[in-house]
Every structure is written in C-alpha cells, then in structure tokens.
Amino acid sequence: MSEILMRFDPTGALGADLGLTREDVSRLDAPLAEVRSEILDVDLPLWEQKQTIPPSKQPLDTAFIEWPAELMSAYHQDRLNSELGRIIGAAKRLRDLVDRVVVLGIGGSSAGAMALMNACCQPYFNELTRAERGGRPRMYFEGNNLDNDSMQGLLHLLQHNASGDSLEKNWAIVVISKSGGTIETAVSLRVFLRALRQNASGSESLGQYVVPVTGTTGKLADLATALGCVDRFLVPEGVGGRFSILSSVGLVPAAILGLDIVALVQGAMAMNEHFRQAPCESNLVLDFVAINHLWEQRGASTRVLSIWNKSLEYVGFWYDQLLAESLGKAGQGALPLTTVNTRDLHSRAQQHQEGRRDKIFNNLIVDQWRFDAVRVGTSDQDQDDLNRLAQRTVPQMMDAAIRGTNQALRSDRRPTTNIHLPKIDEFFLGQLFQMLMLATVVEGRLLGINPYGQPGVEKYKKFMNEILNSAE
Ligand code: PA5
Hints:
Elements lengths: L6 E3 L12 H5 L2 H12 L5 H7 L10 H15 L5 H15 L2 E5 L6 H10 L17 E5 L5 H13 L5 H4 L1 E7 L5 H18 L9 E5 L4 H9 L5 E2 L13 H9 L4 H17 L6 H14 L4 E6 L5 H15 L7 E6 L8 H6 L4 E10 L25 H18 L4 E8 L2 H22 L9 H14 L2
Parallel strand pairs: 2-3, 2-4, 4-5, 5-6, 7-8, 7-9, 9-10
Antiparallel strand pairs: 1-10
This protein binds 5-phosphoarabinonic acid.
C-alpha cells in the first residue's frame, strides 16, 4: 500500500546524553518481531481459540486487528446490506428524523465516539444552527457516569427544546453496551427512555428513536427486541470494549455526525499493512513501543501524551483508558497522562521540566491546521507590545512553543518523541487509533501481560452491588 502515513519521530528520546541510543533500541528488534508474528498469527476461529489458548492468555480479543478488513470486504461485496452500509443508512434515517442524539455508554463504549466527535466536528458544533451543521444532529454523551446533575442538565435541555418545529424538538438515543448489563448505561437508558416516551407522545414507535449497539444476547438485546428497534448493531465477537472504536461502537455515532466512516476503516487497514510489513526501526508501532518500553525501564513510568491541538484532547482520554486498562495489571503498566498544550504549559510544565525524572513526553502534533491561519496583526494601541509580532500567525507561535518545549526538556535530558498527523481527518485518525491499539497489545505481550480483559474493574462493582442491595 502506498498511502501516506502518519509519522513517528523519536529523535528527542535518543542520544548518548540521554542514555538511550538507536543501538540499544535495535536490541529489541528480535523480541518485537517475534511478538508481532505471534499477534498476527492468531487466525483461529474464536471457539477454537477458547479451547486451545492457555488460560494466561484468555480472553484473547484479537478480532479488532482484522475487523477493518472484514468490514471493508463486506462493503465491497454488498454496499447497502453490509455492516458499513447499514450504519450509513441508519445514520441518514436518524438525521432526517431528529435534531439531537444522546449517546449512552461508558468506558470503551463511549470514549471512542467522544474522541471522534471532538476531533472531526467543528469546534462548538452543538451550538451551530441545523443549517450550519449540514443537517447533522447535535450529539450529547451520558451514561458515562452516575452524575445526577449532569443527567438532569441534559434532560432539562431536551425538555426545554420540546416545542416548536417537530424535527428540531425530536431527539433519539444511541445506547452502546457490549455486555448489555453495565449499571451506568442501564440506569441512564431507563431514565432517558422515560423522557423519550413523553417527547414522542406515542405518535410513532419508540423503536424508531432508539438505536442499540450490543451483543447478540443480554439484557439490552432483550430490551431492544421489546422496544421494536428498527436499527440495531452488534459489537463484534472478540473485540474488547476499549478496542472497539472502529466497530459499530464508534462508527454508529461517527456516521450520525456525518463523518466518513469508510475512510476511518481504510486508515486502520493502512496501519495494519504497515505494521505487518515495515522493519522494526521504521515501523511506527514497534518503534513507539520500543522507545516507550525502554524509557519505562529507565524510570519513565509516566507516559505523557502531550497534545498540541485542542480537538484531540478526547483522543488522549481514549488512550488513557486503553493504556491503563490494558497494561495496568500485576503491579505493572505505565501511568498515562493527557496534557493539552499550550494550555497545560501553564499548569504542568514546571513539574515536567524540573520534577521527578519519571516521564516520557509523546507529543501528538498535527502538521496542518483545518482553518486559515489567524494573524496577530498590527494595532494603533501597542501597549501589549505585540506589533513586533504583527506578521506572525497563531500556527507559527504554536510551532515555536512545540520546538521551544522540546528544546527545554532536552536541555535537562528529558525524553520526548513526536507523533505527527499530517492533518486531522478520518483516514489519519483511523491510522492513529489502530497504531495505538496495536502498540498496546505489542507492549502487553513484551511485558508478559494479557492486554485484554479488565479483571480489576470487577472488584468495585462487586462491593457497589453489595452496598446497593443491602441499603435500606
Ligand atoms: O474496555 C472495556 O471493556 C470497558 O471499558 C467497557 O467498555 C466498559 O466497562 C463498558 O462495558 P459495556 O460495553 O459492556 O457496557
């Protein structure tokens, strides 16, 4: 494949002065190549995996790797009836029916859609008129907490807009839960369904306004049947929650927002191809793992994703979950930390520059801004002393901040890397998500940790349920 790829530049993390050289990194080539083969060689059907894979490697949710190719092949064979075709069709139906969509889900069932919306939609998208939004519905996220006031706030907003033009007052629910039994999602669905029933006032079937994304069986699947949902989508077997952004879990909300979901999937396929073919040193996935892993061994147990474009902040939150839930096991796993700059230079830079030497900074940089560059410009009132910078633009100033911050960290022997996205679009985001998911799995195997499953999360649920069931 000859498509343009995002780039990874680890220069700021390498050098004799830092104590990590390219020669040190190349010593990891053989183990990394072995892990790559192991990951790519899993082509057993799921039922067979369950029988032949040792318990230490269960669950083995590797299906996210080949899922983009499966989606695309089905799309080429039968556009309308394939999964992608059905998602695009359902999104169009909703766009013609409602002006607001409430997405209910938590963890892997919501982080990806939030990242996609914030990255790809215009800033302040929900504030725009329907015409300015190109007819695409506003989108809100709930069910990702047990926050009474946030829930009430959204219910109030939906009710407040319940009069006037019928399309503008209409709203729908997309409810996403792989297990179909997560308490936060289930409670919010019950509450929002109650409000939806009042809003739809029996005119049409509620099933038109609720789109579930869940497993083949389970409580949510049963409820979807009872509601008569006209569009429903499956979370594919063998795709874990935090690895599901490029399945119906992320693609249904993305399509409703009018994003090019085919390009997202193609981006992931391009990254898969690169991961398979490229030699270690020039392999984005393997080099990213090697550098971060070797720095962790040298004490960099905090992995800062330093983001230089506000719209990618939720990509950072998505990655926080991916890394923390996948590798935070058996007393291991780096601590992920998302920062957005230059904002956080004014809150965290002091500690990053002079605090504990326990961090590596992976900059996430977008090479091309979406909109025209804003110029500082001249003013008759130069009390702010900015006329000296009158010809400069905001992107030029940002570029100076990135380079200046990297230089400052280097001058104190602190490691940085640069992940470059040529621009923010669905194709490059598809690459980025797939790169980070593959990297997390490779690193898990390198550490001897199963990156899938999250047994530790069950503990709080057990105690919480005991408390709820015993409370008066
Ligand atoms: O990564 C995971 O598997 C989790 O974060 C889940 O996505 C999260 O717990 C929500 O689960 P469910 O989709 O079953 O409601």
